[in-house]
Specification:
This protein has 261 residues and is an alpha/beta fold. Helices cover 46% and strands 15% of the residues. Strand 5 (136-141), helix 5 and strand 6 form a beta-alpha-beta unit. The protein binds NADP nicotinamide-adenine-dinucleotide phosphate. Residues 13-14, 16-20, 37-40, 43, 62-65, 90-93, 114, 118, 141, 143, 186, 188-189, 191, 193 line the site of NADP nicotinamide-adenine-dinucleotide phosphate.
Length: 261
């Protein structure tokens, strides 16, 4: 299947690392003009160095938890490329570990502000432009913790569930306007966070790190972590004209790990 993003402009939040960076590389290769953002200028500089055809990439420092940063991100995108066809809401902090008595109110508010309100901030501004052409794609990167709660993914799980609900209601709202909105939930993807998770699992079960890793891998039907490119492939499909009758849905890219219907 050939995906062609020529003449398309995509904003990818958290595009300096992991899944966002893999997606940015793939979109640029398919002809898109791509805007990436993240909080660290250093991470952005490294990312631009890694992307071929970097003349088609605009990197903007932006914390999606700060309204004025997000306003600046979209103003600069429109000033440079003139429109927004695709938004990939992907930027999020990792939040594995603390239990309910270890998460204070400030931490809850910070977590909700970053992923949930952050996705809403970006969506509002992207939709404003997409409505002008009655066309657009928004992909919300979620995570299995939304459907499969875990006591140690306390802030992340409920926020993911909220993003799924948001995806469905926005898809209903904007379908008649030609704006298609979908969710994609990665399973365990090798972007460097799993060491922390496996450490917790080892500690909790009183086993070694390598045994925790073995147990974890054995719980994945495909018996391995996914890589960011495998998620980027599915994001590209959802953002392309090949998915023209898909909106409000969630696609799992998890090696079969999530066992429920
Ligand atoms: N990897 C997995 O196994 C997995 C599983 C389920 C769901 N997910 C979801 O997939 C998405 C990407 O995860 P990943 O593993 O690729 O993460 P990652 O490798 O840590 O990359 C996260 C990216 O987001 C940026 N970022 C973080 N907070 C930000 C903020 N407030 N504003 C702007 N940029 C911000 C980071 O750059 P800076 O640090 O420079 O800001 C970085 O570019 C997230 O939504 C995550 O919840 C991942």
């Amino acid at each position: 299947m050939h995906i062609n993003f020529s003449d398309q402009v995509a904003v990818i939040t958290g595009g300096s690392k992991g899944i966002g960076l893999a997606t940015a590389k793939q979109f640029v290769q398919s002809g898109a003009k791509v805007v990436i953002c993240s909080r660290s200028q250093n991470n952005l500089d490294n990312a631009v160095n890694e992307i071929e055809l970097s003349q088609n990439v605009l990197a903007i420092q932006c914390d999606i938890g700060i309204s004025s940063d997000v306003d600046n991100l979209f103003e600069k995108t429109l000033a440079t490329f003139g429109k927004i066809d695709i938004l990939i809401n992907n930027a999020a902090p990792t939040s594995w570990g603390p239990l309910i008595n270890e998460v204070d109110e400030a931490a809850w508010l910070e977590a909700v502000n970053a992923k949930f309100i952050g996705y809403i901030r970006c969506t509002k501004l992207a939709v404003e432009d997409m409505l002008l052409r009655k066309s657009g794609r928004i992909i919300n990167i979620v995570g299995m913790g939304g459907r499969g709660p875990n006591k140690r993914y306390l802030t992340g799980g409920p926020i993911n569930a909220a993003v799924l609900s948001l995806t469905k209601s926005l898809a209903n709202n904007y379908g008649p306007d030609g704006i298609l909105i979908a969710a994609l939930s990665p399973g365990p993807i090798d972007t460097g966070h799993h060491e922390n998770i496996l450490n917790w699992m080892a500690q909790e079960s009183g086993i070694s790190f390598s045994k925790a890793m073995e147990n974890f891998i054995n719980g994945i039907p495909l018996r391995r972590y996914g890589n960011p490119d495998e998620v980027a492939n599915a994001i590209a499909f959802l953002a392309s004209d090949k998915s023209s009758y898909i909106t409000g849905s969630e696609i799992l890219v998890d090696g079969g790990r999530f066992r429920s219907l």
